[in-house]
Amino acid sequence: MHKKPPVYRDCHGVPVKYEINRTFDIKGPEDVAKMGIATYNNLCRRIVMRYAQEWEDVVDRMGRWIDFRRDYKRMYPWFMESVCMNKEIIQYLRIKIFFRVTVMPYSMGCCTPLSNFDAGQNYKDTDDPVVWVSSPLTDDPTVKLVACTTTPWTLPSNLALCVNPNSIYPDSYQILESFKGSHLKEMHYTPLFPYFANVKTAFRILCDDYVTEDRGTGVVHQAPYFGEDDYRVCLAHGVINKDAASVICPIDAQCRFTAEVTDFQGQNVKDADKPIIKYLKEAKRLIHQAVGKHSYPFCWRSDTPLIYRAVSSWFVRVEGMIDRLLANNSKTYWVPDFVKEKRFANWLRDARDLAISRNRYWGNPMPLWISDDGHEVVCVGSIEELKQLSGVSVDDIHREFVDQITIPSKLGKGLLRRIPEVFDCWFESGSMPYAQVHYPFDGRRTFTDTFPADFIAEGIDQTRGWFYTLLVISTTLFDQPPFKNLIV
After folding, report:
1. Does the keyword Cytoplasm apply (predicted)?
2. Strands (E) located in 236-298
């Protein structure tokens, strides 16, 4: 029987970062800056190695046959080079990668965005404030729309209201007139707060079918940089645009209001709910308040509430390859098969472009060097190519070793600097089939002989995580599934 090298998947993941932050009382990026990235990353490196030894001891005691002498860890430079610096990946990134602002689940406790599949792991029933607020129409202040929300902290960032174009909106007390929501489209209203009143495209009534009549008032407040539907609707109606410089997201990495929101500056968004409600009451914009119980996502690691917020991220185009993903999935055998045919296939049919970058320190740096004006981009294809382009030789490509390296421009644009983002660790785990043998730099024969894998086995929670990224990357690079059989 062949001994299998062990997998150390969480080397660059949130668990390591969270434990270091908790141990050293690191609250946000400013604390890491004071400590220094090199010191911070070395702490992360040490804790991985400590747990690696503990794991080896336990596995040996269990009698599991593992070849620890040929192990690989995702923090090994050769593994990292295969993930982000091989020519096949570079060609893939040049075609597929793009940069945009999007709304993502964000952990207040870990000060980092999470993937959509991470965000679904820890829902809890929780009591939250519910408020009903009024918005007088600009042309006739006696007419007021009433919106309901369970996130009062998003109201200072309100830029629009949304109604269903086909719903009938009567007055619930005395019916003076009934009309479809489309009748209200493009009417203007008075902002709830003064902070962003100068946004010329804002404070309009929009129409979209996602608004329903079965809850709330049928009028949904829109804070486009704090909600996925809000962002989609406001983008479609021109309230906002894709320009990252125009983003209205007045909170910092620790989810505290910034100076733009003067009345609540420095307050954590969830702690600011009560002061915001008090402000609305004094401004005579609060119609009613209550407490409601609903299911709400919490960070699975820090157990703090997740919020949705705007994050600048690099994406890989996936939406155009759904048919190929489904075709490759059909070539695999799963036990039980309903997970393949239902849970996984349904996830693939609704696949969205994949966010692959994170604003973290301990991770696999993205190999993109960009000019100050953003018009010249170099995607570095290996550690050796980095040396040729920059004149600097490195043995490790973590941030503390590569962030200061610059590349002279070939277009007369001065020096190119690396972007600060690192790869999401799900991208690393999806790269495992070839990165574990340092393909394509080494191990070509081994990779050819062992890919796709005969079988893999993992928990059902990996359906939208590891199984998904494995299939996306394998389909893009090799147009075949990464495994033949899968046991869930």
Report:
1. no
2. 286-297
pLDDT one-digit tens code per residue, 411-420: 988 999 999 9
326: part of which helix (H) or strand (E)? helix 322-330
> In terms of CATH architecture, what is 123-297?
Alpha-Beta Complex (3.90)
Each domain of the chain, given as residue ranges in start order, spans: 123-297
* Residue in the structure block whose two tokens are 């209205």: 248
Peptide bond into 224 cis (omega under 30): no
List, for residues 392-417, the tens digit of each pLDDT value.
Answer: 999 999 999 999 999 999 998 899 99
CA dihedral angle for residue 79, residue 81, residue 82, residue 84, rounded to 10 degrees:
120
Cβ distance 146 to 217 under 8 Å?
Answer: yes
Phi, psi of 344 (to 5 degrees): -75, -45
pTM to 2 decimals? 0.82
Enumerate residues 6+ apart whose C-beta is below 8 A from 40: 20, 26, 32, 361, 362
**The tokens of 202 are what?**
């804002």
Residue with tokens 């920059």: 390
The whole-angstrom separation of Cα 235 and Cα 268 is 27
